[in-house]
Amino acid sequence: MFGLKSVYFYLIACQITLVKFFRKIYFSSKNYNKSLESKIPKQVYYNPNPFLLSIITSYSGPPFKISEINPNNFWLEDKKKNTEQMHNFFWLSLIDRKTDHTKVKKIIYIWMIKNSKYKKKIWETSTLSERVISWILNLDIILNNSTFDFKKNFLNCIITQTNHLKKNIKFEKDVTKKIEILTAIILTGVVFKEYEENFHIGIKELEILIKDFFDDDGFPLSRNPNDLIFFSRYLLFCKEIIKDSQKYVPEFLENIIEKILNCIDYIKTPNDQMPLFNGSTSLSLGQIQKYLNDFKSDNKNSKIGGLFRIKHKKSFLLIDTGRPPQKKFSKSYQSGPLSFEYFLDGMKIITNSGFGNHISKKAGLLSRLTACQSTLTINETSITKFEKNEMINKVFGASIKNSFKSFDFSSKNESSLIGCSASNNGYGKNFGCTHKREIYMDKDNNCLKGIDHIFKTKDGYPIRYAFRFHINPELSAVKTMSGNSALIQISKNKSLLFSVNDEHLEVEKSIFFGEKKIIDSYCITISGNLVNKNKIFNWEIRKNI
User: Average of pLDDT values for 373-392?
Assistant: First the structure.
C-alpha cells in the first residue's frame, strides 16, 4: 500500500516520464536537429595527447583488430549487441594508430551517414559524452590527411552532439553521467577557439556539481567508494587536459582532486582495491595508482565517509559507522550499518557481499539486503527499506524509503588495543532494538576482537537475531567440534580460528556479488532468539596454532 510520500514520488515520476516521452519525440524532429546546428570550427587550436584517454577508459572487450575488419560491415545489426561499447568509440585506444587510421576514418564516415541526427540509444547521454571525448582525443589520426568535406562534417558532428548535451544537462539527475557530460563540454571549449565559452560553462557547472555531491572531506554523498574512483578519473582527466592546453587549472578542481585522493588512500584495501560498501564492487585502482604514488596523504581524519579504518602491522579493517545517504543519492546504498571488512597479511578474511547490479537487477536488489553484509540482521529483515514501485525506480532508481541514526561513535588507541565503538537504531522503530558494535585489534595477541550488544527497548517483543560474517569466496570455512568456533582455511598449512563465547555458530553457504558473476562462498552465522533481555556477544578471530 502506498504511503503519502510514495504517492508523491509516484506522481512526480509519472510527470517526469511523460515529459521525457514528449522530449524524445521532439528530439527526433527536424526542428530539434536543426536547433543543434551552429558554426563549424575552422580549425583545431589544441590537439590533446591521445594517451590521456587511458585515465578514463574502461573498455573491457577484446582488442579491436581494425586491420581484419571490413569498414562496410562494422555497423551491421548483429554487432550491435554491444551498442554502448561500440558507439562510445573508447575502443580507439586499442587500435594501431600507425596502420589503422584509414579504416577508422571510413568507420566514422559510415557512422556519420547513419547516426549524425538524434537516435535514442546511440545518443544516450553517457554513450554520446564518451564518443565526443574519444573523437577529440583522437583528432590527430582522424583529421590527418582527410578531405575538406570529411573534416567539415566530422567537426560539425562533434558540435551538434555537444549542443545536445548542453541543452539537456539540466534534465540529467545521474551525477556520474553529469560529470561525463561536463567533461565533453569542457573539452570542446579547450580544443575549439570558437567554442571557448563551453570551457567556462563546463567549469562553472562542474564546481556546482562538486559542491552538491561531495562532503567536506571529499567523499561522495552516495557513500559509494566506487564513485571515488569514477570521479577521480574524470576530474584528473580534466585537470591534465587543462594543464596540457596551458590554461589555468581552477583552484576548486585542484582541491577536490587532493581530497578525493586522500579519501582513496584512506579506504583502499591492502590489495589496492575499493572496499565493498554501499554499492561498490571489487574495483582496482588502475590508472589512479600512479597519482596516488605521487600523493602525500596526511590522513588526520578519524574516519572518512562514515568509514573508520583500523591498521596495525599486517592487519587492516574498515567498519561502516555512517548513516544512509540522502534519498536522491541512495540508489546503490547497501543496508549494512556496522558491517566491516577485515584483512590479514594482505588477504581479505571477512567481506561484505558486494553490489550485484552489474550482474542483474535481481542480483542488485538482493545484494543490498542487510543479510548480505557482515553485520546484525533481526527477523531476517533489512534495516533499510528500498523502493519497489517500478515507475519510481525507473525515474529515481531503487532509492531507500527509510533512514536511521548512527550515534555513540568513539575510537580507542591504547598500548594494547586499537579500534572503535559505534551504534545505530536502525531496528528501533520496528523491533525496539539498538545495535552497538565494539571492534578492536589486540596488539599484544595479534587478533581481532569484537563485542556486539543488542539493547532491547521493547520488553516482551520476541526477535530472531543473526550476526553474519561473510568469508572471502577464495577461502573456505568449517565448523569445529566444539560448536562455538569455526576454522577459516587460508591455505593448506594456514588457518584462522573464529570463536564466540557461550554461543553456537553455524557455517552456511552464501553468495558473493563483487566480481563479474555470482560466486559461491561461506558465511559464519551466530543466531538465536531474544525476548526480554539485552544480550552481549564476544567473538574473536586469531591465528590457529
Answer: 87
